[in-house]
Amino acid sequence: MIENRIINNCLFFDVETATGYRSFGSLSEDNPRMASLWSKRCDYYRRSDEKLSKLSDAEIYLEKASLEPEFSRIVCISFGLIEDNGSSRFISFYGSDEVDILEKSSKVFNNASAKGMKLCGHNIKGFDVPCISKRMLFNGIKDLPRSLVIWDKKPWDLPFLDTSEIFAFGSWVQQKYLSLDLLSCALDIDSPKDDIDGSMVSGLFWGGEDNQESLERIKEYCERDVDTVIKTLQKISS
Predict the structure, then answer these.
(1) Domain residue ranges of the chain, discontinuous segments joined by +
(2) Residue 157 pLDDT
(3) Measured between alpha carbons, how far is 77 from 190 in angstroms, rounded to an integer?
(4) pLDDT in tens, 127-151
(5) pLDDT of 54-68, one tens digit each?
(6) Dihedral sign from CA coordinates of 170, 174, 180, 181
(7) pTM above 0.85, yes or no
């Protein structure tokens, strides 16, 4: 369905996030204004999701804050490339220094842009791209990668190849609910969630001081997601 020459000229990537603070209590102590705004956000969550209706602000924080760039932090960004021999190569930036992760990742994005490469991932238009862009600005990085500055571009000029969009075939509903795990299962590709999944990343990150083993698990999980996207597109390529 998609030509190999297009897939071979892609920079594949994935992002993993954690809550910005270990707990809502820590957020309240350090930034009361942001904590107050989170409480307002929780009113929306309780109205829109019955499963959250009885939870406290602190409990919803642990459930949902890592998904919102204003209340989260990036703990890993993994990149993948397809080599000339068909094998895949990966590099990841991860840890507790978010600025370092973002600055190193920015160089990778700019290098790919200079080579005319597309950016590829699962639901990158809905989550990864806006998350990276916002976290860069929130951390004072104003010189965003050229490929992420898209506010003045036409939809058909965007340098993105998004597997959730490809497999939606124009259906917004299908795109919204198609997880990478479900997609890989439907295509008979091994699950990237065989150790952890995204809901566990924040707990692993905050689980202990300087927990290198947990960081390695997060990195390996992020790279498996990237690898799964590569295998997905290779399976449908022509």
Answers:
(1) 4-20+71-236
(2) 86
(3) 21
(4) 999 999 999 999 999 999 999 998 8
(5) 999 999 999 999 999
(6) negative
(7) yes
Dist CA 62 CA 147 (whole Å): 32
Q: Which residues of 16-26 are buried (b: 16+ CB within 10 A; e: fewer)?
A: bbbbbbeebee
Q: Indicate if the pLDDT at residue 210 is higher than 60.
A: no
Cα(232)–Cα(238) distance, integer angstroms: 12
119-127 mean pLDDT:
96
Please report the pLDDT score of residue 173 as a whole number. Answer: 66
Query: Higher pLDDT residue, 18 or 150?
Result: 18
Q: How many CB atoms lie within 10 A of CB 142?
A: 7
Domain 4-20+71-236 has CATH 3.30.420.10: yes
What are 14's strand-pairing partners? 78
Angle at alpha carbon of residue 219, lines to 213 and 222, rounded to 5° = 145
Q: Which of 101, 111, 159 is nearest to 135 (CA)?
A: 101
